[in-house]
Every structure is written in C-alpha cells, then in structure tokens.
C-alpha cells in the first residue's frame, strides 16, 4: 500500500508540474474568447480533460510495446525523457509556456470548439511529449498491477485537476494575475527540473548497472 501511494504521488506530482494547467490558463482564455456562454467554457474544459485522460492512458498502456517495437530500453528512454523534461523546466523557470508544448501555428489551426479541445489544448499544450514521457516510464518500470494501477489513478486525478483549473480559468487569472501565474510556472519548473535530473540519474544507473 505504501508503494502504491508513493508511485501515485510521484506520477501525479510529475504530471501536474509538466502539464502546468495554471500556466496554460492565459492560452486557454485567449482560445475560448469565441465561447459566448459559461456552459460553453465548461464544456470545452471537460472535453479537453477527457482528451488528456484518453491520450495519457493510451500511451501508458501501450508504452511497453513501443519500447519493444523500436528496440529501446526503459533506461535509454528515461535519459532521453529526462533531457526533454529538463529543457521544458528551463523554459518554465523563465516564466514562459514551453515551446515544446505548443507553437503559434498549432494554436491557430483548430477551427471548431471540438477540435480546439483536442488540438491544441489537450495535445500538445497539456498532454505533450513531456506528459507522455512522465507516464510511460513509471508504467513500464512498475511490473506489478498495484504500481500500474497507481499510474492510471494518477493520470485520472491529474486530468480531473486540469478540468477544475480550466473551468475556473477566469477566476484563476483574476485572483493570481499574470504575475502570479508566472510565479507558479517558475515553481513548477523548479520541481520539474529536479525530477528531470533524477530521471537521468536513474537512467544512467540502470543503463550501466551502477
């Protein structure tokens, strides 16, 4: 049971830092300007969180087969993923929304609200490469069903937290302001940087049998 909660807290903490839903609030609000009603914003937040849940759960479940198909080891993926997460962390520490997540072109591609919920909000703004890496590695490393269940639960709770933040995006921005959002983004970046470094260390240890 202790191992279950440790895995859950680690994956949820990493996911929340990587997805950084609070940092995504300004982007979300700029995209949903065409929503005329409160119900429309809530519906968009719900669709986005469901898309995040489906995306991350899918990659968590098929991650091991992806490793086998490309002949990659978990340790190699951990090193590469740690480097990617560290790059994102450095951009977050500067108070910016990571370009690894979303580009200006991707932000303008979606036409309808249904499409916006999936691209660019769910993918790649929230559940981008960093989030996918954050679920694939612990899912592959936990061989017992308890550990895998903890990862899936962490994905569900993190996705639900995305819904709660986005549906209250206007209140979040009003209370925190842009300065507050940038401050939280930097704090998340610091947490993510430490996790990324530890991921690389664990990958190197596993690869060289240290």
UniProtKB/TrEMBL annotation:
Q: Which Pfam families does this entry report, sorted A to Z? A: MarC
Can you tell me where the transmembrane regions are? 12-32, 44-63, 69-89, 110-137, 149-166, 187-208
Specify the protein's topology with respect to the membrane.
Multi-pass membrane protein
In Swiss-Prot or TrEMBL terms, this protein is called UPF0056 membrane protein
Q: Which UniProt keywords apply?
A: Cell membrane, Membrane, Transmembrane, Transmembrane helix
Q: Where in the cell is it found?
A: Cell membrane
- PANTHER family in the record, alphabetically? UPF0056 MEMBRANE PROTEIN YHCE
* UniProt main location, coarse: membrane
User: InterPro entries under this entry?
Assistant: Multi_antbiot-R_MarC
Q: Which NCBIfam families match?
A: NAAT family transporter (TIGR00427)
- A GO CC annotation given for this chain: plasma membrane
The entry's family comment says: Belongs to the UPF0056 (MarC) family.
């Amino acid at each position: 049971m202790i191992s279950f909660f440790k895995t859950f807290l680690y994956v949820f903490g990493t996911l929340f830092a990587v997805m950084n839903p609070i940092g995504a609030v300004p982007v979300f609000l700029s995209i949903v300007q065409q929503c005329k009603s409160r119900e429309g914003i809530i519906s968009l937040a719900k669709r986005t969180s469901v898309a995040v849940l489906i995306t991350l759960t899918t990659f968590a479940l098929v991650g091991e087969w992806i490793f086998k198909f490309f002949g990659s080891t978990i340790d190699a993926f951990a090193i590469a993923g740690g480097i990617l997460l560290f790059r994102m962390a450095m951009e977050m520490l500067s108070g910016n929304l990571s370009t690894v997540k979303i580009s200006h072109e991707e932000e303008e591609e979606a036409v309808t609200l249904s499409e916006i919920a999936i691209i660019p909000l769910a993918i790649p703004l929230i559940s981008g490469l960093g989030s996918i890496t954050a679920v694939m590695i612990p899912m592959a490393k936990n061989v017992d069903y308890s550990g895998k269940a903890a990862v899936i639960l962490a994905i569900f709770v993190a996705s639900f937290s995305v819904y709660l933040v986005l549906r209250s995006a206007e209140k979040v921005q009003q209370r925190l302001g842009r300065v507050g959002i940038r401050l939280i983004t930097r704090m998340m970046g610091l947490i993510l940087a430490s996790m990324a470094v530890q991921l690389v260390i664990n990958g190197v240890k596993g690869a060289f049998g240290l």
